[in-house]
Design brief:
It is a single chain. The protein is an alpha/beta fold. The chain folds into two domains: about 30 residues, no CATH class; about 150 residues, Glutaredoxin (3-Layer(aba) Sandwich), CATH 3.40.30. The chain contains six helices and six strands; from the N terminus they run αββαβαβααββα. It has a six-stranded mixed beta sheet, with helices on one face. Strand 5 and strand 6 form a beta hairpin. The N and C termini lie far apart (about 60 Å).
């Protein structure tokens, strides 16, 4: 009887340590998810699974619907932008993101623009004017923007999703280094 009581006490003590360590973020169960080499990134979503985008997008321009779950195995660049954001920052970033998309498409990068607008006719001329070829989803009710916390950081903003569907990098488009994209490619 005494040995059973000791085993239960030890089990409870070890269980308590496991819970405490897990709550403190110390205990890692299973294989450790590593960020691809060469990427220095911080942000609330870095290292977490990228939220799905397809369910929140009402219209697609320049291509068919995109679902992140179907793009596993490919690196994905999500570019959140708005044609009328403060100071025209998104329009200024479009050529840079378009160049990255063109440069890395052959290597396996999928680039997707996400814009809070409800009228494709308003976005299409802007895309043509800036030579944008990547597909753009119109997030009319801003569901996708909220899931990526864009209301906190404002547009333009990018998320680089690695081949496992994890956010590897987030930040302003002009801060996205080609080496970060290279590190995420299959």
């Amino acid at each position: 009887m005494a040995s059973r009581t000791k085993r239960v006490a030890w089990g409870m003590a070890i269980g308590g340590l496991v819970v405490a360590a897990g709550a403190a973020g110390v205990l890692v169960l299973g294989p450790r998810r590593k960020r691809p080499a060469g990427i220095q990134a911080t942000g609330p979503l870095v290292g977490k699974a990228a939220p799905e985008i397809a369910d929140g997008v009402e219209f697609w321009v320049n291509g068919k619907e995109a679902e992140l779950r179907q793009l596993k195995g490919k690196a994905v660049l999500l570019f959140f932008w708005h044609p009328r954001d403060e100071g025209g920052k998104s329009l200024a970033a479009l050529p840079h993101v378009g160049k990255l998309a063109d440069s890395f498409e052959r290597k396996g990068l999928v680039t997707i623009g996400l814009c809070v607008l409800d009228e494709p006719k308003e976005v299409e001329p802007t895309l043509r004017e800036h030579g944008v070829k990547f597909r753009v989803g119109l997030d009319c009710d801003a569901d996708v923007h909220r899931s990526y916390r864009i209301e906190n950081v404002k547009t333009p903003y990018c998320y680089l999703v690695d081949t496992r569907g994890m956010v590897a990098w987030e930040g302003r488009p002009d801060a996205l280094a080609e080496s970060a994209i290279e590190a995420c490619l299959p």
